[in-house]
Queue: 4 jobs
Job 1
Amino acid sequence: GRKAAGGPCAGIWLQIGSDLALLKEGLEFLALLDRELAALPKGAKQEQRPSAPSLGRGFKHFAVYAGLFLPSKQLLAQQRFRPWAGVKLTAGGYLNSLEEAKEVTRNLLCIY
């Protein structure tokens, strides 16, 4: 990838995962960062981002995007055998059964 040359961060993509507590912690950190950016003196502030579809949490200085899996038996088998790089699904929860994976996905949607 290529690093942007000095411009503000337009968006943040969250990794796919099933650790709900870690997701909440990360979103709280991003909310704190957004509040800190809002408190900067006028000349030091980043421009507010243009409206874009992102998580419904009201971030003003950057967009936050997240992905999730739609659980299926095939997906769970594939993720147990050969998980994708950067995907963090718990073996004792999400990967345990299709019903548990669906429940975690519902909870992820509620958090987003």
Note: Confidence is low (pLDDT under 50) at residues 49-53.
Job 2
Amino acid sequence: LSSPEYSHIISWMPHGRAWKIHNKELLMREVVPKYFVQSKYESFTRQLSGWGFKRLHQSGNDFNAYYHETCLRGLVHLTALMRRVAPNKGKLLPHVEREPNFYEI
């Protein structure tokens, strides 16, 4: 996420609490094969849900960005706290009104 060479494909949001995919096709062709075994975008996003990542549905700059409580820019050590979500508990219906506004935190 922090690699400048991929910033046109995937990058952190300015606040560092979420990240956004800018180009799905390039992500799956250039980035994902280097780090993951998935070959389909849907499989990749299913894995994100399985690890507890949530997609933001609120309007604004963070629309469609992903976040996780332990995935913060510059704090890689926190990712050790990530755990797989129990089966069928990963993707929940979005509640836009309860989503965090990272610009107000």
Note: The longest strand covers residues 10-12.
Job 3
Amino acid sequence: FTMICGIVAFVCFQVIWCCRMNQCGLITTGVLSVIAGTLSVIAAVLVLAAGSSTICNSQNYDDDFYTEPYYEEDACKVGINVYVGIAFVAGGPWVGAGTL
């Protein structure tokens, strides 16, 4: 969901830049940027609050498909923590661009 909001805000930025739209378009893009950044930060907080161990423990690793070392529970925790970090870092520039 955060990726879709980010793509919409990005496309709006590009349309305004290429078409030199009026102030209404600029304000709309700013609002969409703030929404995209806020959703990214909210998603990171929700995943962080749920905890990587809770999310990873809900996965079923008994299947033969998950016998590779990559699919171990520790790799899941690392992946969740990386997602939280990226979501926090990605939210900042969106909010910053929307407030300019």
Note: The two ends are 24 Å apart (CA to CA).
Job 4
Amino acid sequence: PGPVLSICGTMSGRSPLMTSQDTQKRSAWQSERQKLLKELGCKSDHCAWAVLMHLWMSEGIVRRDLCKRYGLSYERMSAAWFERRHLCESLVQAGFLPKDFLQREKAEEQD
């Protein structure tokens, strides 16, 4: 369920994608996003959101560098991560996810 939760969290608010009047910067961001989609072997932005959120939550990642590379708003990615976490907690309380889901997800990340 982790990737789906990431997609839902990302889509729950304003898009984390930044825009710029600087065409060079915009082109660089678009190029990096396209490379990511190509590496994933999919065409959907939804797949990219799952991977970007996974990277965001990873140990040792420099989040500001991630944002700079892909043209993401740090504040909006933080909000998406918060929404993802809130959704997880709600699903745990409703009994749709195991009580230790977040802890297991974090432990799997560290392995």
Note: The helical segments are 2-11, 23-40, 45-57, 63-70, 74-93, 101-110.
